[in-house]
Hints:
Elements: H1 2-10, E1 20-25, H2 30-53, H3 60-66, H4 75-101, H5 106-111, E2 123-128, E3 145-150, H6 171-174, E4 178-184, H7 192-203, E5 212-218, H8 223-246, H9 253-259, H10 268-294, H11 299-304, E6 316-321, E7 338-343, H12 368-388, H13 393-423, H14 439-446, H15 457-482, H16 487-490
Parallel strand pairs: 1-3, 4-5, 5-7
Antiparallel strand pairs: 2-3, 6-7
Helix pairs in contact: 1-2, 2-4, 7-8, 8-10, 13-15
Amino acid sequence: MVINTVLSVMAYNYPSQNLSIYISDDGGSDLTFYALLEASRFSKHWLPFCRKFSIEPRSPTAYFSTTPEPQDSNPIMDQEWLTIKALYADMRNKIKSITKIGRISEEVRKEHKGFLEWNSDSTLYILIDKRDPKAVDSEGKPLSTLLYLSWERRPQYHNNFKAGAMNALGYEEVLPEIDIFVCTANPRIEPPIMVINTVLSVMAYNYPSQNLSIYISDDGGSDLTFYALLEASRFSKHWLPFCRKFSIEPRSPTAYFSTTPEPQDSNPIMDQEWLTIKALYADMRNKIKSITRIGRISEEVRKEHKGFLEWNSDSTLYILIDKRDPKAVDSEGKPLSTLLYLSWERRPQYHNNFKAGAMNALIWSLWVLPFTYVFITKHAYSLGEFLRFDGTIQGWWNDQRIWMFRRTTTNFFAFLDTTLRILGFVETTFDVTAKVCDEDMSQRYKKEVMKFGSPSPMLTILATLATVNRFSFAACVKRVIVNIQIKALESLAL
């Protein structure tokens, strides 16, 4: 079961150089270690097979148990299917044989060099290292890192569950930073109490808090959801230490307290903390349900939470917890993950009202810098070159306009004319134009004034684009100044 999970993860449709898989074996089992050694070999054939034929599901056992042998529909796939099936059956039989015996024979230990580093107390072994040029599959494509880590087997301690072996690693140095997005669009369909339970369970992940950031995308722009998250950010300072201390499962407060009876003096310390956390949760839940029932935030509540000073029904970006802040710690002094709330204007008729549409507002990223640099540099160099050869800013601007005209009209008409001529609908003609420059034209040239002259279909396109853009720009300006939306025009702004 373990190796099927590992192989399906390795076969993700994701760049292998950005993917690392860590197996945390808190049981310290050499049987699991042996199975992973065999799986690392099989992965060199399984991954190309999945990639080549878009295999689903990507767990070998699930795939071969649900997919019948192909019937000559694709000779190439038929042959590879049989080959991979034979390799998988061979690996499975080896693992089952060892598991049945319950120990690793000396012959097998000598076959796998990994057992030279095996230690029943603790083992850290890199089965596949993506930095190694030889870590490639049968098609020469690089493989993801596959790392095995076991810790001494101590069932009486909590580190025997839920990646306890990972305690041996320097978390922040080994594990990557992860951003998790929680999306909500309508506080009636998705009650705020449900949203915060999702957020709190994510915050309580057994993962280094300094490598974890949670983003709440509220496409409904609801101050009820915002209030619920403000309360949840307070409660998290007590809930997270409780989960960590007693290995709480599930980590959603509602799910936990609704399925777990009150402890009966089995552990006095836990009993007391259980009652304290239950009371804090009940207090938070009652506050949120009360506000949700009323349907609005009272002035007293708004004054209580400074976050409402920055609240805006159209858009709000507010950092509820900032992991860079030294004060962002829980009740035990452990750092908390970043918790960021972002709402966008409530426009249900647009698609951005669903599935993290609010995140569209987060356009700022380091990736903006290269594009900004290219845009500014290109135009600055063009202007500098124009001025260096005795040009003017007005002349340079006219030159930019001509390039725009070419993109929107000239190129299109040239393509259309060539196509019609090739198809035989029109014949090649040559229009004789005046080659003499009159006084009026000469004066306009000196003043760098553009005049288009006689009517042309090209001008119709330009005039239409300019008119639409002018009205769209006016609608956007009006909205910024007086906050009145003209949706039909705003979406056409160029």
